[in-house]
Amino acid sequence: MSTVSEHSLNGALRPGGVLNILSREAIGLLGQYVAVGMIYGLLPALVYPVYIQYMNFNGYQAASYTSIVNICWSFKIFMGVLTDCFPLFGFKRKPYMVLGWCIALICICCMTFSTFPAPYVGRPLSSLSHDTIAMLRGGNLSELNATARVHVNVQASSQAGYWIILSTICSFGYMLADVAADAMVVEYAQREPILVRGRLQSIIYGTRFASSVVPQLIAGICMNSFEYGGNFDWSITPNAAFGMLVVPCLLAIYCALFLVVEERDVRPVFSAYMGRLWRLLELRVVWQICLFRFCSNVFFSFEATAIPSMKSAWANVQPLTNSIFGVLNTALMAAAIFACGQWGLNLNWRHAIAVATIAIAAIDSTVLLSVTWHVTRSPYFFMGRLLPKALPSAIRFAISSFCAVEIADIGNEGAVNSLITTIVNLATPFSTVVYKLVDSYFDVSVANLATDSVSVRWQVTYVLLISLGMKLFSLVFLGLLPPQKAALQWLKKRGGYNRGAAWGIVIGFSTALLFAIVSSVMALFPSTACYRIAGGSGEAIVRNGVAICGWVDSTGTLTTSHND
Q1: Residue 543 burial (CB count, 10 A)
Q2: pTM of this prediction?
Q3: Topology of the domain comprising 22-117+155-522
Q4: Which DSSP string corresponds to 263-314?
Q5: Helices (H) and strands (E) in the chain, counts
Q6: Element at 548 (helix H, strand E)
Q7: Which cellular compartments is it found in (predicted)?
Q8: Residue 300: count of CB within 10 angstroms of its CB
Q9: pLDDT-derived band of residue 554, with 50, 70 and 90 as boundaries?
């Protein structure tokens, strides 16, 4: 029996056989995801100890940091086209892995050896009470004398731009390497029989999440002194945290050069490639999956800007506690992805997502409202809500990667995988922009939460209920998702074409990307952070009698009438 007949009978999408996970090429590929997981684990782990505590970011500023550092993932499709169409030295994937890791390594070295700004609240003020510290973080320095005020760096949040820009460029670098590796994973996954297709992806992505546990542990244990909101009498500097990423970058470069196996390929004709890609966009299966992924995740990712502030002002979560629960969440996420590859490859996707989403809404509503109304403000109770989220997050992530494998054709693996996952990645910053805009009309800033008044509790309740309602509304779009791989393949073959839908994908994608970038960048700078489109309050910000954000009318009166 021929190879083609064999892979036709067992449901594989291309010949070649299942990849041996202990082979040299598999280990080289896994090395890429270990490094991705390390960076992917550290940068988000710094949000609470470094940016919210050390730099005293507001909730909307912290959300903007996360959004702009992750915005590079919304450009994956362009990197996918790059790796598909423009081989370097005859190779489509390996050179881009090396290039991406070199970019990331340069940025990491710059962050490691540049002097980091002083903390918002210096260690000499560690004897102050929790309530006084909360007042300081809200901008009220009236309790301090002139000597003590020297240890408050009121400019801390405005000095973070350099580090955020380098973190963003670093993310672009390792994202380029990740896109090239993802394309190879699609090629290998399509060699698997239909009954076990997705198992390799589960191992690969489970490894990625498992490796991110290490930097999260280091961030929590070694960044738990007073400056970071903790109570240890020692800590490492942010520079040291960035420096720990040098080794995994070097490891990934070695794996790409000497372990990853790739055959030389010819450069495709770009016009012909784009024609095939456009034809693919016209397929019903593509635009339907894209529509589901975007709409569902926009609503599912709708959070409340009050939550980061609740963590510090009400639940008094210390970096160590935050990191422990973050590590547990990540470990459960990795375990859930491994479990999907072992036992969940043939689950009904619709049923799994529906049950998981409803469970998340129930858990979040119970915990967050209990903390808001002071039923309990235990940091462990507050952070415990993260753990049940691991399973639905793993399911959504796995389904996204499974869909990409089923849709991709030979030669466009990078672009198709990037398109399907980019839609999800773009939904998160777009959702962040929208919920920051909505929440800017409520009094849920750090200063408001520091008062802990009944009116503020109601304001927080409103934004939490809006967030929970949006998550449940995401289930409306489940009908667009095929229930399993076989149904998706049927839709690809018989679903037909729609040119208007293809244009809708392009226009909608471009608009959402531009909107998310502009709003996220505006939130980073004091001169534009007050605008509602950036997630600000819509009110002018005044320092020392000078408006640093907002408009001044002809009479000299501060106004924000132009903010929207």
Answers
A1: 12
A2: 0.81
A3: Growth Hormone; Chain: A; (1.20.1250)
A4: ---PPPPHHHHHHHHHHHHHBHHHHHHHHHHHHHHHHHT---THHHHHHHHT
A5: 24, 4
A6: strand 546-549
A7: Membrane
A8: 26
A9: very low
